[in-house]
């Protein structure tokens, strides 16, 4: 494996963790509700599945767009990643209380969609570049599943201490990758 391939995989791992931070921070709050371990396992699995489906749809759309915009694809992808990261950072400072949906039935689907929407946009920007799709999707799904589980389990132990900071960290990582694509 070449140094370039290793660097690409490491970058994808950091990006996967950054995308999973949103699920982690929301899961902290959800974990403070009385949630059984079986439900925690299911919630993490569904969130992971959506973190595979949403960026896959974004990658497909991004690849279709990249054929149309050609030379502007890299610039668009970098700007999109930076914008998503900045939005995550700014939303962390939004102090309005959020009503958490119960992680059951349709509430679980809405929860999974809400924490995976940013992964659609990241998938779109990755589709504009030439990323290894299967590796990216598996890393996104695994990271979000694990971070959701960790968030819910920690939420059972502590009360909202890390929520905002994890979202800021995730947003900062995405901003950094966007700047790296633009200027690196």
List key phrases describing it.
184 residues, mainly alpha, 6 helices, transmembrane helix
Structural class: mainly alpha
Query: What fraction of the residues are assigned to beta strands by DSSP?
Result: under 5%
Q: What summary fits the major beta sheet?
A: none
Distance between the termini: 22 Å
Q: What is the succession of H and E elements?
A: HHHHHH
Transmembrane segments: 6-28, 40-66, 72-93, 105-128, 134-155, 162-183
Subcellular location: Cell membrane
Protein name: Putative manganese efflux pump MntP
Pfam families: Mntp
What's the short story on this structure?
The protein has about 180 residues and is mainly α.
Structure report:
Helix 1 runs antiparallel to helix 4 (106-128). It is built from six helices and no strands. The model has no long low-confidence stretch (mean pLDDT 80). It is mainly alpha-helical and 184 residues long. The longest helix is centred in the first third of the chain and has 33 residues, at 37-69. The two termini are 22 Å apart. It has one domain.
